[in-house]
Design goal:
It contains 15 helices and eight strands. By secondary structure, it is mainly alpha-helical. The chain folds into three domains: 4-49; 63-172, Tyrosine recombinase, N-terminal domain (DNA polymerase, domain 1); 186-361, hpI Integrase, Chain A (Orthogonal Bundle). Residues 174-178 have low confidence and may be disordered.
């Protein structure tokens, strides 16, 4: 590689060969151009010393090849089995059939937008009794999330300059989240508990009283419950995961780091758990057990929940809506949003506000009147020091 040279018009340039090709790199005239040429030359000489060849472009893998590498990377991070299973299914079923043979650098913002629009409008046979229906917005947004994670990892690996998915807005909005959320009123809660038998009655009451997820409730052990201090500790989650050609139910880590949390129990819930039969086997001390003394199966719980809703003449809601019911009760009790976040185990306050902010509408009304009331009681404010006033008694 030759040194820096100056042309007759004052511009600077480098003349060098890389991978058998002659390359000229031009820079602006003046000292700024000369400094830029020196920096470029220094970087290229360092690359040559390290055995790198900047003149030869790196091959860009196809989406299918890189997605397989990304999944291997996820497994190395020891992520939750359910998280891996969901990412693998999303890539295999939805993303690879469309983007599989496409090189990563050929995936554009327009192609991603077209893909999501087509997915949103194409019916799939997942409705009642296999009838075609459009996928939910949250499902399409999950595709966007997984595609963004794959391309984001490609950016991290210096295979792409930018992640085009970041420029594509999510489809789900606060209104769609509101439509997907159902909560029970206090009267409906009493009707549900009245028809439920044990251990499901206490399980429902614990779900409504703590906001714990289904898997967290099923993995709850007596060793994590301290009725003397009226607290319980969320340490694990129980879930159904794929194991080869079959599915197994097992305990695993909670959904997020914030999910490991301590929850205060209400006096009524504490009294209920005090009368609930405790486990006598230290290895099988699940709080909510089946007839054999083992933990309840997630699918069996869902079926029993639907049956109890029917017996109570309540609308068909998801078990997860008991968690939403708990959050709505906290909001009605005017609990601080940060406390709600910690109690629900959300990773950030943004998740809490995006999910339940529409239920806090009362906090956005009457602001002007409240300001007038404060100003009416306030003493005169100095125009020169509005925040350091002194009022006479």
């Amino acid at each position: 590689m030759k040194g820096i040279r100056k042309r007759a018009d004052g511009t600077w340039f480098l003349d060098y060969r890389a991978d058998g090709r002659r390359i000229r790199k031009f820079f602006a005239p003046g000292q700024d151009g000369r400094r830029a040429a020196i920096a470029f030359l220094t970087a290229r000489r360092a690359q040559v010393t390290l055995g790198q060849h900047p003149g030869k472009p790196r091959p860009v893998p196809t989406f299918a090849d890189f997605a397989s590498e990304y999944l291997r990377y996820l497994r190395g991070l020891d992520r939750r089995a359910k998280t891996l299973e969901g990412a693998e299914a999303m890539i295999r079923v939805h993303l690879t059939p469309v983007f599989g043979p496409v090189p990563l650098d050929r995936i554009t913002k327009d192609s991603v937008i077209s893909f999501f629009a087509e997915k949103r409008e194409t019916p799939v046979r997942h409705g009642p009794k296999g009838t075609p229906c459009r996928p939910a917005l949250r499902t399409v947004d999950k595709m966007r999330e997984v595609l963004g994670l794959v391309l984001g990892h490609a950016v991290y690996r210096d295979l792409l300059p930018t992640n085009v998915v970041r420029a594509v807005h999510p489809l789900a909005s606060a209104s769609t989240a509101d439509e997907a959320m159902h909560t029970l009123t206090p009267g409906e809660i009493r009707r549900l508990l009245a028809v439920a038998q044990e251990p499901y009655r206490t399980l429902y009451e614990t779900a409504i009283g703590t906001g714990m997820r289904r898997g967290e409730l099923l993995a709850l052990r007596w060793r994590h419950v301290n009725l003397a201090t009226s607290q319980l500790y969320v340490a694990a989650g129980r879930q159904r995961v794929k194991d080869g050609n079959r599915y197994i139910v097992q305990d695993g880590p909670v959904k997020t780091r914030a999910g490991r949390r301590t929850i205060d129990l209400s006096p009524d819930l504490q009294a209920r758990l005090l009368t609930f039969p405790a486990g006598d086997d230290p290895e099988q001390d699940y709080v909510f057990r089946n007839r054999d003394g083992g933990p309840l199966d997630p699918d069996n719980l869902d079926r029993r929940f639907k049956r109890d809703l029917t017996l109570a003449n309540l609308p068909p809601i998801r078990f997860h809506d008991l968690r939403h019911t708990h959050a709505s009760l906290l909001i009605a009790a005017r609990i601080h949003p940060k406390a709600i976040q910690a109690r629900l185990g959300h990773a950030s306050i943004k998740v809490t506000m995006d999910t339940y902010g529409h239920l806090m509408a009362s906090g956005f009304t009457g602001i002007g009147a409240k300001l007038d009331a404060l100003l009416a009681d306030a003493c005169p404010i100095s125009r020169y020091a509005p925040f350091s006033r002194k009022c006479s008694p």
